[in-house]
Amino acid sequence: MSIPLLTIINLVVGSVAIPFGEVVSLLYGGDGGSEIGRAIVIQTRLPQTLTAIFCGAGLAAAGLQMQTVFHNPLAGPSVLGISSAASLGVALMVLANGALGGALLAGFGVYGNTALTLAAIVGALSVMTLIVWLSQRVEGNATLLIVGVLIGYIASAIIGVLKYLSSEEDVHQFVIWGLGSFARVTGGQVYVFVGLMAVLLPCTLLLAKPLNMLLLGEQYATNLGLDVRRARMMIITSAGILTAVATAYCGPIMFLGLAVPHIARGLLATEDHRLLLPATILAGASLALICNLIARMPGFEGALPINSVTALIGAPVAIWVLLRRK
To answer: Is the Cβ–Cβ distance between 181 and 90 less than 8 Å?
Structure first.
């Protein structure tokens, strides 16, 4: 199913039914439609849909890069502890600050959202900087992978301590943030998020050649003239920034970065990143739109946690694709 069609369905379908013609009129700036319809489509569904497209695409691209650079099919965007560090940044603001942090998140306003986003970005980029620094000083990928996993454990441990010392209300608000949501990016934030992703995603396509060379192994890549350390640093930086931005704006979205690259490989039956990277980006955007649509289908009050939907919908698809290839 194409992304334009899924986009239209996401704009039309929801707990409040809005006719297709009215949606098209509102998108083109027409005067047709009610004020309620305008508010739902322009202020809620459109930002949510754009967020789903770019978040899914970014996490899928980051997952493919991580799986290739570490030669590990189970690697994902969160493998280096970047998502955990983003969660730690939010936890320090929400849980350590007590009532102030809880009020920022509970208010769900522009300033509260901005503060949470900045906290997540600071946490994620701090760890990403450390990982990139280590990638220049560590020879093997296994050591770097282990360090990333240990950083994730440290961040999770600190978050656990903060949860234990915090009030139930603050912990509840933090847990809600941790479930992930495409609806969190509202107002002017959606333009910043989409703008960042629109710059970062094309840059990943420039890494197709070094990714293909790394598939052959580091020794072969070196013989072919590739500076392995520099290429590894660039790939990790690209995946890290994509993960940091997506997690900061949408929360820790699971599964997409791990499974979508396998779905793209299964559908294309190729390891050539010149084809695989664009296909993974498109597949990530499509699957995120499908999950977003299911999360707020009519009959549900509010929206289901997006992490639950991504796993329940995406995992069977990934299993089917893998079994189909035998």
So the answer is: no
